[in-house]
Predict the structure of Phosphoglycolate phosphatase.
Amino acid sequence: MGNFDLVQFDLDGTLIDSVPQLAQAVNRMLVQLGFGEAGEQAVRHWVGNGADMLVRRALTAALGTEPGDELRQAARAAFDAAYDQVADQGLVFYPGVLDTLAALRRAGKRLAIVTNKPYRFVPAILAAAGLSEQFELVLGGDSLPEKKPSPAPLLHVCRSLDMDPARTLMVGDSENDVLAARAAGMAVVGLTYGYNYGRDIADSGPDWVLSDFAALADILLTD
Ligand SMILES: O=C(O)COP(=O)(O)O
Ligand SMILES: [Mg+2]
């Protein structure tokens, strides 16, 4: 049924609204290092390129200039310790996510996650939502040498599951997802409700622009 056998999902801004927990961890890190807290809206615009870049963007905003290596390393360690404590707390899945994932599995679709979030944080998040068994493969931003917008993790998933990129759909909220999918030769859905540095995901030119996760069923479960 449908044109796609495998669906690769982004995580932050696609399945879960993780900004509240990311902002908590960023703020604990900033305060620990003697800076003032950042607003949640600012953090929303800094998410997308993994934890190193999130920390770097927060430090640059706090300092008004690029941070040095030593500060970045200390800040990343402080962020990791803080995010470890909150990453799976009070998780909010976007409307329709859990039901739609279950429907896709029932229809025999193969599902994977390719996130830029460091891998160590991901299993606890999936377990907290009862989703540990839904995905055949989960890659974090540090699972391979390259992260999105590189196509490498998306192609790695296809190779590992013996799937054709042309019959794979990528689903994400950021231009990184669209660029990675395009370079991998995959079709891509852009969701409007996530984080794209404050920009409209339609500007990145995904094949479909959806404001509702449940609408994926129209693409994936109809002929
Ligand atoms: O953690 C990030 O920076 C982004 O994560 P995502 O790839 O799941 O959107
Ligand atoms: Mg995302």
